[in-house]
Amino acid sequence: MKERISGEITKVNELVASEINDVENIRIQYLGKKGLLNDLFAEFKVVPSDQKKEIGVLLNNLKIAIQNKIEALRESIVQVEESKSENEDLTKPATELQLGSRHPLSLVRNEIIDIFTRIGYVVEEGPEIEDDWHVFSALNFPPEHPARDMQDTFFIENREDGNHAVLRTHTSSVQVRTMETQKPPIRIIAPGRVFRNEAISARAHCIFHQIEGLYIDKGVSFADLKQNLLYFAKEMFGENTKIRLRPSYFPFTEPSAEMDISCNLCAGEGCNVCKGTGWLEIMGCGMVDPNVLEASGIDSKVYSGFAFGMGIERITMLKYNVKDLRLYFENDMRFLKQFTSVY
After folding, report:
1. Residue 162's pLDDT is what?
2. 321 Cβ partners below 8 Å, 6+ apart?
3. Runs of H (alpha helix) within 143-276
4. Which of 65, 83, 134, 231 is least crowded, fewest Cβ atoms below 10 Å from its Cβ?
């Protein structure tokens, strides 16, 4: 047995391997449950007592030799692999990576924010789960007022005091929160997601995004509102864009208006997108109603202001000529990869 063990030590020292799998096979051959070392230790049990010490030392030497050889083979293979990677041809074409792109709604949202922040507006945000006061009452929607029916609301919790918990139907709630906590002058934009209980179609969805603006200071006039919106339209849709303001009604502004821009697809000549009119509606606006100022603790005899609000989906549809807003929510990579921008 002594000669056999000595011979195995010699064989182990001469072992070679070119791959990690070869090293693993050697480990199993010698150190596995059915490996050579276990067989030798089983035979060791019947070795005469006067030989146990000498053979035991040889067995331990064999075990150490096997472990050292396996470790040395593994390190040498790793070094070879690392040297190969270091010597790779750096002029070879790289593996093509599939790059993502930003969502079109994010692109347009960021572009709108950038336009307004350039003229002094700051971004304010608020909770999506709101109460009746911030969504309706503080914005001049009295209880049972028919204007509340203009927005089909998702009610979360009906409270006994009437200040129900709702999913906000517009980001005007952010305007109220700002007026309650800040003193004029106030110049903010409020981007965010809003919810209305509407049937989903190519032109409507129960979830959409808005950006609303608010400017309150001494001496603010409708002319200021028009100039701000004209600046936005030209920056967003091109220098040749024209706007028009049509009388409208909103409970929280007086006077109120709808703003149209000249169709950027037909240059105002009339097409199927603008239904032959040459104009496209993009937002509502108006002077903040004095009742809204007073409800938030702002003296309407000293301060005045204007507000405006637009749907980001609507602006994106016009900017990129998208016909179906359901595409924004489907995560179809064929659709999303079409949009690139610096924003």
Report:
1. 67
2. 265, 273
3. 172-181, 222-237
4. 83
Separation of alpha carbons 266 and 318, rounded Å: 12
Hey, is 24 helix, strand or coil?
Answer: helix
Residue 176: helix, strand or coil by DSSP? Answer: helix
- Going residue by residue through the chain (343 aa), what tens digit of pLDDT does each one get? 777 777 777 887 888 888 888 888 888 887 887 788 777 777 777 777 877 788 778 878 888 888 888 888 888 888 877 776 666 666 777 777 777 778 999 999 999 999 999 999 999 999 999 998 999 899 988 777 766 666 688 888 887 776 788 899 999 999 999 999 999 999 999 999 999 888 888 878 889 999 999 999 999 999 999 999 999 999 999 898 999 999 999 999 999 999 999 987 777 777 776 778 889 899 999 999 999 999 999 999 999 999 999 999 989 988 888 888 889 988 888 888 888 654 4
pTM equals 0.68
Domains and CATH numbers, the chain: 2-86 (no CATH), 104-336 (3.30.930.10)
Report which of 30, 104, 13 is spatially closest to residue 65, judged by C-alpha positions.
13
Q: Under 8 Å CB-to-CB from 69, ≥6 apart: which residues? A: 12, 13, 15, 26
Tell me the Cα Rg of the chain: 38
Is the Cα torsion angle 106, 112, 117, 123 positive or negative in sign? negative
Give, as one character, the DSSP assignment of residue 96. P
Residue 152 in tokens: 């089909």
CA distance 114 to 343: 9
Sequence-distant (6+) residues with CB within 8 A of 177 are 124, 126, 134
Element at 56 (helix H, strand E): helix 49-86
Instruction: Single out the residue of 198, 195, 212, 61 nearest to residue 124, CA to CA.
Output: 212
Largest Cα–Cα separation, the chain: 114
Report the distance separating Cα 190 and Cα 207, nearest Å: 16
Dihedral of alpha carbons 160, 165, 166, 170, sign: positive
Pairing mode of beta strands 186-195, 122-123: parallel
